[in-house]
Structure formats: structure tokens, C-alpha cells
Design brief:
- The protein has a single domain, classed as Rossmann fold (3-Layer(aba) Sandwich).
- The C terminus is likely disordered.
- It is built from seven helices and seven strands; from the N terminus they run ααβαβαβββαβαβα.
- A hairpin with a 2-residue loop joins strand 3 and strand 4.
- It is α/β, with parallel strands linked by helices and 195 residues long.
- It is globular.
- The longest helix is centred in the first third of the chain and has 20 residues.
- Strands 1-7-6-2-5-4-3 form a seven-stranded mixed β-sheet, with helices on both faces.
Length: 195
């Protein structure tokens, strides 16, 4: 357990350092969230109010994952291509920074690394998510999902060791897809109780 915690702390320090070197100084709450993203849980749910840097944090984390995970396959999806492009833009900004030694090849809605790593932006069409095998799947703005089909398709595509982040602002009610997901989610790792 101590070795896993040390590894997690080292990875968090590496992520925070990379963000700093590329001009993104994380706020303390963002460092806490990044620490949770590195946790052992297979699925993570991040809810934050608007304008708290959620998209930049997740995009930067996706690029860091691309840099630090051999042959990484990162998939960013949202209910519109425009929303997914926001995270993709932040990932590209970090990955293409002069402070990053690894060179990536930018393509249309895709970022390719020299070892075959890719970051791909997908639309909300759940059928297009079938057949994917991500090491990291990100679903942005789940609060506006009409149903859970895309979430289910991504979740079922995860291989052992892969992680899925669902990041969103608050939803519109307990009967929404986000409301149902929150109802079955375990207690938050940190939050109003200061954990």
C-alpha cells in the first residue's frame, strides 16, 4: 500500500510540474482533483461549477497521460464535437508546448505520439464508441446527456487498468443520466466534509 501511495504522489508531482513548465499553475483544489484522478478507482466522476478550470485540468491530464503511458489511447467525447474540442485544445496546448520534449503529430481531431499513442475526439454518437479500447476515456459535460448510451459504450470498452473520467457541471435532476450515475456512486473522496 505504501509503495502504491508513493507512486501516486510521484506521478502527481510529475503532473503538477509538467503543468507548471507549460504555463498552467494549478490551484490547490485542482491538485486535489488530479490526485483523485490518479487513484485506483476505475471510474471517476468530477462535478464542478462552471468556470473552475475543469476542461483545462482534464485536457492537461489527458496530454500528461499521453506522455507518460506507453501506447496510450485517450478518447475524449462529449454531447457535441465542439465541447469535446475544448478539452482537445487544452491537451494539444500542453502536448505541443516547447517545454515538452516528446514530439506529437497533430491531425484533425487527433493527436499522435511517436510510440503510436493517440488522443482522439469523438462525437456523442454511441455507436462510434463501440470497438474502441482506451487507456483513458473522458466524457465531458455529461449533465446534458439525453441518455446513458455513450457512457455505457465507453465504460464497456475499458480494458483492465484503464480509467474513465466523467466530468461535468451539475445536472438537471435526479432522473437525468447524471442524477442516476450520482445515485449509484460511492461517497466523494473529498468534498464538503474536507476529506
Amino acid at each position: 500500500m505504501a509503495k502504491r501511495d508513493r507512486n501516486r504522489r510521484e506521478r502527481l508531482a510529475d503532473f503538477v510540474d509538467l503543468c507548471h513548465r507549460t504555463g498552467f499553475d494549478l490551484e490547490p483544489f485542482q491538485v486535489k482533483i488530479a490526485g483523485c484522478l490518479l487513484g485506483p478507482e476505475r471510474e471517476k466522476l468530477i462535478t464542478l461549477p462552471r468556470k473552475n478550470g475543469k476542461s483545462r485540468l482534464i485536457g492537461s491530464f489527458a496530454a500528461w497521460h499521453l506522455l507518460r503511458t506507453p501506447r496510450a489511447q485517450v478518447i475524449v467525447v462529449a454531447n457535441s464535437k465542439e465541447q469535446a474540442q475544448i478539452i482537445d485544445g487544452y491537451a494539444r496546448a500542453l502536448a505541443m508546448s516547447p517545454a515538452v520534449e516528446t514530439r506529437f503529430e497533430p491531425r484533425f481531431r487527433e493527436l499522435r505520439g511517436p510510440d503510436g499513442s493517440t488522443l482522439v475526439v469523438k462525437s456523442a454518437d454511441a455507436g462510434r464508441a463501440l470497438g474502441l479500447t482506451p487507456t483513458l476515456a473522458i466524457y465531458d459535460e455529461f449533465c446534458v446527456a439525453k441518455d446513458a448510451e455513450l457512457y455505457t459504450a465507453l465504460r464497456s470498452a475499458l480494458l483492465p487498468g484503464a480509467t474513465m473520467f466523467t466530468c461535468t457541471t451539475s445536472g438537471w435532476g435526479a432522473e437525468s443520466p447524471l442524477g442516476r450515475l450520482r445515485a449509484i456512486s460511492p461517497s466523494p473522496t473529498f468534498g464538503s466534509r474536507g476529506r
